[in-house]
Amino acid sequence: MPQIGWIIDLTKCVGCHTCEIACKAENNTYPQMSPLPLKSDFSAVGVSYRRVLEVESGRYPNPKRSFYTMACNHCENPACMRACPSDAISKRASDGVVLLDQLKCVGCRNCAAVCPYGAPQFNEQTGLMEKCTFCVHRLDVGLEPSCVSACMGRALHMTTNPNAPGDAPDGFSDHRLTRPAVEWLRDKVNG
Fold first, then answer.
1. Residue 59 has pLDDT above 60, yes or no
2. Which of 7, 90, 159, 163 has the most CB atoms around it within 10 Å of its CB?
3. What is the pTM of this model?
4. pLDDT tens-place string over residues 103-146
5. What is the spatial distance between Cα 125 and Cα 17, in angstroms, rounded to a whole number?
6. What is the CATH number of the domain that holds 152?
7. Number of folded domains that form the chain
């Protein structure tokens, strides 16, 4: 099965939140504010399919601030799909995109409990779960996801069959758990 995924160049992300804002505009997610406040690194106050995490490390006199963009990683072996009691989560055979059917979702939050990346989020307005769709409505007509198109620093790219995970940032879950379709780079991406 082909697998579509992300390439994220950690040396190019400057924390501008443009990908996050483009995602909210494209998908009309609630609430309409960006950057969306976070309860913790992987827990949003509201629904935001893509978010930019800001991580501080180091100590005086060498503090460091890093940024990285996160969304659903459309895993090869998605834990959310296995945990869903209503079969609301599926994986497209054509490209490996993991989708959540809100007509089948019962809002039990099992998918959120097992996802190591915080991708499925509970929408308090609808009582249902939501997550990144990799902008399948754009993919199906030959366009990139809105977050990729909007990334000013060219830190975010889409790819087919990524060499996951590459050099993942500190705190990223063990890739062997779900085999996320994301490749982390710390050098230049060709193009």
1. yes
2. 7
3. 0.85
4. 999 999 999 999 999 999 998 878 999 999 999 999 999 999 99
5. 24
6. 3.30.70.20
7. 1
